[in-house]
Structure formats: C-alpha cells, structure tokens
Amino acid sequence: MIAARTGQDTAAPERCRRCEIRDAAICGSLPDSGLARLSAIGRTRKLKRGDTLTWEGDDAQTVANVRSGILRLTAGNADGEQQILGLAFESEFVGQFHDRQERYSVMALTDATVCLFRRTDFAALAAETPAMANAVMTALSSELGRAQQWMRLLGRKSAEERVATFLWDLYCRSGAHEDHPVPLPLTRQQIADVLGLTIETVSRKIRQISRSGTIELPDLRSFRVRSAAALERLAA
Amino acid sequence: MIAARTGQDTAAPERCRRCEIRDAAICGSLPDSGLARLSAIGRTRKLKRGDTLTWEGDDAQTVANVRSGILRLTAGNADGEQQILGLAFESEFVGQFHDRQERYSVMALTDATVCLFRRTDFAALAAETPAMANAVMTALSSELGRAQQWMRLLGRKSAEERVATFLWDLYCRSGAHEDHPVPLPLTRQQIADVLGLTIETVSRKIRQISRSGTIELPDLRSFRVRSAAALERLAA
DNA sequence: CGAACGATTGAGCTTCGTCAATGTGCGTGG
DNA sequence: CCACGCACATTGACGAAGCTCAATCGTTCG
Questions:
Q1: Which of A21, A112, A181, A182 has the fewest CB atoms within 10 Å, measured from its CB?
Q2: Can you give the pLDDT at residue B79?
Q3: Is the CB of A204 under 7 A from strand C?
Q4: pLDDT of residue A77
C-alpha cells in the first residue's frame, strides 16, 4: 500500500514506478557506518501465517523490517471492532519508532520473515547518529503517506475500485508481467477486512473483473492480469 | 482530530481525556533551550477563512503550528478529486517535517493564526538537538495516530456515526459543558467534505440527532449538547 | 465418505447518493 | 423600510451500491 511521495531521490529500490507503491526508504539515506550498526542490532524472526508479532497496547519493544511475506496492521476500538490500517510488504517497516506503546496489532497474513530491532537500540542509534534519526523520520513520513493513500481508498473508492486497487497493488509488487500468475495469499475474508467490504462483495467484484476479461482466476490463491491497462483504469 | 496514544507523559495539555482528542505534544518534551530556539525561528501569520497556506506538490518550505482556527488538509489525485485527510486544530502541527515536497494542501476553514517555521531551520535544529529530533518524531507519530483514527472513521463508520463523531470532537475540543453552545464554524458542505458524505446526508443526520434530543440547534453556526453520553454513544 | 471451511450466488433490504423543489437568513440597492 | 437576490440549508422522491441472510458448491483433510 501505497504511495509515499517522499520527494527524495534515495537509493531505495523502487519496484514499480507506475503504481502507487514505493518501498520504505529507510536504508537509502544511511551511511555505511549506520547500516553496519543497524545490522549489528537486528535479529531475524520467522512468523507462521496467523502469528501475531505485536499486540496493540503492548509495550513497544521492537520495530521490524519485513523481509518476506505480508503483515497486517490492525487497531481495535472499545467495541472490539477491528479496523485494518494497512498491510506491510517486503522492505517496509512496522512498529513504533518513537512511541512506547504499540499503536496497532501486527499479524502475519502469510508465512513471513522479519528483521527485528529493539526500539531502544533504534532510538539510541537515532539519538547519536543524525543520519539515523533522519532515516527514522523518512520511514515515519513514508508510513504517513501510505496512511493517507489508504484514506483515499476508504473514503472515496467504490467496491470495484477498491478490489481493483488491491489487485493492481499486488500485481505491481509481485513484479509479474501480464498473463503471468500473481500469488494472492489472502482469503476472501481477509481481503474484505483489508478493503472495508464484506466477503460477498469482494467475491462478486473479483468475479466481475474476471468475467470482464481483465484478469483470470486459475485458482483461489492466484490470478493473472490479462490487461494491466484495464486493471489500472478500474483501480481509478 | 483524534487520538494519538503516545504512551508518553508529556507536559502537553490534554483537553479531554474521554474523547479521542489529544494535543500534539511537540513542546512537551523540549528542554527550555530548545523552546527558546524554536520561538526564535518562528513567525506568526494570520489566515483568512478560505486562504490556502500550502499547496500539495509545492516545495515544502515551512511547517506550521496552529494557534487558532481550523485548517483543512486535503490531497488531490490525478482526476482532480479531493480527499480530505483531516483537520488541524489549535496546537497541532501541519506540514512536512522531513519531506521536501508538500504532501497535502492546507486551507483555512475559519480565520486562523499559525506560527510558521522554515522547514530547513526546523531540520537544522533537529539535527543539532536530539531533543528536537525527538519532538519532531513525536509530532509525526501523533499525526500518524490521527491519520489512523481518521481511517477508522472513513472505513467503518456510518453516516450517523461520522456526524456524531464530528460533533463530539468539536464538543470535546471546545471545552464547553452540556447545554452550553459550541461553535460550529463550518458550512454543511465543508462538514460533508470532511466526513466523506454529501451535504444532504449531513443535514439529515444533524437534524435527526437534534430531533432525538441529543443536541439542540439554536442556529446554523453552533449547537448545544443536551446529552453528552448519548452523543458519545452515537459516535461509536 | 463425510465434515469443515472457504467461495459463490441469489433475494431482499438498508443506507446513502442524486436530483429537484422549497425554505431561510442576510446583505444590498431602491 | 422593503424587495430582491444569493448562498446556504432542508426536505422529499427515487435509485444504486453494497450489506445481510440463506442456500449451494468445491476442496481439502481426516
């Protein structure tokens, strides 16, 4: 999800210039010494699908960089209702760089690998290394940008546009080309939760886009884009 | 609007513990020297209702702290459609602390006073003063929290809940008590834009909440809360 | 095979947007 | 002062989008 127009030319990889996706750019602006320090304090953790990395309200001990898989960020409210705040894909950061309390719960939607940093280590590094502090701000800025794109999706897009946006997003991130299969590692229910729709509406709209010939559905866990242009147009 | 649970005990004022609103806490964690530096680089500007402070896409020259009035943050997309990203009230910050390009346009919904800082001054201060960098991160974090609350409003709330949330928000911020008039300095159209609804729906829902006895409408530019508990319940 | 789970499809209903008519308050010019 | 125009607000009728409820289908796994 979705765009941070950072207005910066960092060295961070950009997977797809045309869609709304950019990678979090935290590493791009770091000097080598910062990178070395960073990797010195990180450790890898593997998550199984369904595992929860952090719970909303917990002490914020760690921030994480996604190496593989898809994480889901959710915040509950008093009624126990869950609002999905977004997804985090490879290379993106999740967690509170600054706050002492988790603002959202993070769950793995697929098997995933993350690189964990203790928040305090991170903060200490930021305090002593201006470039690091700068990088944290970049990450926060970029997260904010993603949040704002997400708002546009939730606030203004129709069900069809939401579904198309989601598929387009996955397509762009996957690096696949037209007619090549793109993994779709979420259930319809999970997609519905992410997009703020019901499972029935998601199912109907996916079918509808498929019947229109824009995509193909070889099975429930993948899709092929027949016309990228048409899909992008549907995504609005 | 709306909540940043920073998990921090800062000295920043908290107007209303019960509702979702907190003040941006940037000043709370600054040492006096930082504050002195901060006020040295700031300057005041008055905005008339309808004035635009910054345009999306412009070079980000300044960040601003709202001293009075209400600002509206919007982002356009290719189609020229506008998505409202939120409002900024007294004591909150708007603008890009980190990015070189404005991410949203800022317009005054009412006459307003802002305190402006050049982004570069701000950044320089942050680079040399860890406490200042920390404060910027706090502000970014808090903005992120607001964005996430806004997502919940856009993603999950019904028209009635949105309107009630908005009124509840204003009520809490105003510091007024039950049966005291709360200023409502926006037109129905502006409220509709903010909440992602149409003017007709806003009008109907406000009337409906009024007919239910929860609020009273002495005129179009203010309201009185008859039952704060009921209003909070409607806000969900 | 049968149970369980996810997905699909249909029917009906609710909510909210659209379009159109009407009401209300206010400033301006006669 | 009054009449008029204008902007904003309200209200009603209608329709479309999407939600709810329920039935059915397909796959997978025991």
A1: A181
A2: 62
A3: yes
A4: 64
Inter-CA distances, B178 with B192, B202, B229, Å = 25, 22, 10
Cα–Cα distance for residue pair A216/A206, rounded to 1 Å: 10
The C-alpha atoms of residue B67 and residue B112 are separated, in whole angstroms, by 7
| Best of B79, B103, B165, B232 to mutate (most A CBs within 10 Å, chain A) | B103
Which chain A residues are within 8 Å of B234, Cβ to Cβ? none
Say yes or no for a CB contact (<8 Å) between B83 and A140.
no
Residue of B144, B168, B195 for testing the chain A interface, max A β-carbons within 10 Å: B144
Phi, psi (deg, nearest 5) at residue B182 = -115, 125
pLDDT of the residue at A81: 66
Q: Residue A148 and residue B85: Cβ atoms within 8 Å?
A: yes
What is the spatial distance, in angstroms and rounded to an integer, between the CA atom of B209 and the C1' atom of C28? 36
Of residues A61 and B78, which shows the higher confidence score?
Answer: A61
pLDDT at A78: 57
- How many CB atoms are closer than 10 A to CB A161? 17
Q: Which of the four pLDDT bands, split at 50, 70 and 90, describes residue A170? A: very high
- Strand C contacted by B158 CB (< 7 A): yes
Percent of chain B's residues with pLDDT above 90: 36
Q: 3-class secondary structure for B195-222?
A: HCCCHHHHHHHHHHHHHCCCEEEEECCE
Cα–Cα distance between A12 and A46 in angstroms, integer? 24
Who among A136, A138, A151 is closest to B151 (CB)? Answer: A151
Name every chain B residue with its beta carbon within 8 A of the beta carbon of A103.
Answer: 4-5, 141, 144-145, 148
pLDDT digits (tens, 9 = 90+) for A103-150: 889 989 888 999 998 888 888 887 777 777 777 787 888 888 888 888
B97, B140 Cβ separation under 8 angstroms: yes
Has residue A211 got a pLDDT over 60?
Answer: yes
> What's the confidence (pLDDT) of residue A41?
82
